[in-house]
Amino acid sequence: MLSSKNIQYLVSSHAKILSVYGMGNVGGPIIAAWLRVGAKVVGVDISKKLLSEILAGTSHKKEPFLSETFTTSLKNGNFSVTSDGMKASELSDIKIVAIPVDLDSKKIRLGALKSVSKNIGQGLKKGDVVIICPSMPPGTCEKIVLPILEKHSKLKGERDFFLIYNPERIYEGRALQDIEENYPAVVAGLGEESRRIGEELLKVISKKGVISMSSIANAEAEKIFEGVYRDVNIALANELADFCEKMGVNYWEARKAANSQPFCHLHYPGTGVGGLCIPVYPKFVIESATKIGKHLRITEFARKLNDSMPIKCVNDSITLLSKHKIKPSGVKIAVLGLGFRGEVEDSRLSPTYVVVREFLKKGCRVAVHDPYILEDDLLPSSIQLSSDLDSVVNNASLVFISSDHKPYSKLDEESLAKAKKPLLVFDGRNILNRENFKNASLLTIGMR
Q1: Which of 107, 278, 295, 302 could cross-link 235 (Cys pair, CB 3.0–4.6 Å)?
Q2: Are 178 and 169 in contact (CB under 8 A)?
Q3: How far apart are CA 198 and CA 90, in angstroms?
Q4: Who's near 396: CB < 8 A, 6+ residues apart?
Q5: Strand, coil or helix: what is 188?
């Protein structure tokens, strides 16, 4: 059984082994954090492409220090990768689950979590520690994960092994920094011993220490509430921005002044909310509430409003075309940005997919530009996706800013010279400098 005295030893370079299941946007930074304190880590993932990229030193390009840490640790023997989850469980003493829990239509997908739990259970030994990191509805860890671990290990939680919940708290593009420096780690355990072990373990990589919670369900709720808060407040921003457009008010100027008051924190409006966090967590809460006969009016309305934003922005763009007597049928639209937000290579649940679909419904032709995403399987095969801005905007009747990638903030009329004249631009992220578009027709969300 682990004790406070040997926890630091357990994560040292000469001690026992950690396995991390899922080496993507969450698991990758978690692995790097442990490697940087001298732990030995086995990384587990079913993606052959990701395994190859890690071995080649080309993975996680937008996350500072990850690829370099992996390469160094592969060479010194502290890091290895595999697709064999059961073997990794047999080899390791601490198992960290970092695979995503997401939605398929309106149903929560737990298949990957169940599969990983089974693999871990098959290799689980007395005294082992299991740490669960995905964001998920309250009760999932104890009602879904624990029974699978106990069934396949023939062991009992808290008596024979220790179960800890430590929700990931990262922002893509600075994930390792978030783990190591920016936020305290949230920790809960199946019992008192699990919780104590979790506290001691997470203190090793979290300079901000830990927030210890009384139950796993409370910690699960904490994590999804973070996402619900942001989704609801983005919806408020979108609603107020729409109000400002109709009233002839500049939302951005009003927002800046309002936020000078410390109790006000108005968010950014935009073309939509993407990624596997903010659009997903409210649906976890909504589905859980439905099961107990509860109707979450504010949360549900916010989600619907944010889902409607790509359609609203496309309609506003079509109105801009109409003002210049341009019919949408057959015209080319240059959509800039496939990432679900600025400066990420991740397009999961990106509002750009809806933007493209809506323009196609209007009879438009569409080309998509992204400086970081060079290939994509979800865009229709007829859609051009390129990192060459000139080819995307060439002969375009309208340029639509969908993601707030930093390079777009430097655009000017000359950058878009290959587009048709008059130059029409819809800025769905308020990222453009209006001084650079004095001779263009620029429509910005939140102002008219």
Answers
A1: 302
A2: yes
A3: 20
A4: 332, 333, 334, 367, 418, 419, 420
A5: strand
Pairing of strands 162-165, 185-189: antiparallel
Q: Where are the alpha helices (DSSP H) in 292-336?
A: 297-323
What b/e readout covers 357-384, taking b as 16+ CB neighbours within 10 angstroms?
ebbbebebbbbbbbbbbeeeeebeeebe
CA distance 228 to 246: 27
Domains of the chain: 4-214 (3.40.50.720), 223-302 (1.10.1040.10)
Q: pLDDT tens for residues 169-227?
A: 999 889 999 999 999 999 999 999 999 999 999 999 999 999 999 999 999 999 999 99
Of the candidates 394, 403, 389, 400, which has an alpha carbon nearest to the alpha carbon of residue 362? 400
Q: In terms of Cα–Cα distance, which of 387, 384, 439 is closest to 417?
A: 439
pTM of the model: 0.91
Say if residues 197 and 93 touch (Cβ distance below 8 Å).
no
pLDDT at residue 102 in the model:
82
Count how many residues are written for the chain. Answer: 448
Average pLDDT over residues 286-293: 90
For residue 118, give the amino acid letter: K
Report pLDDT digits (tens) over 303-324: 999 999 999 999 999 999 999 9
pLDDT at 6 over 70: no
* Per-residue pLDDT band at 105 (split at 50, 70, 90): low
- The structure tokens listed for 405 are 């990638």
- Report the DSSP beta bridge partners of residue 165: 132, 188
Token readout for 392 is 């995307």
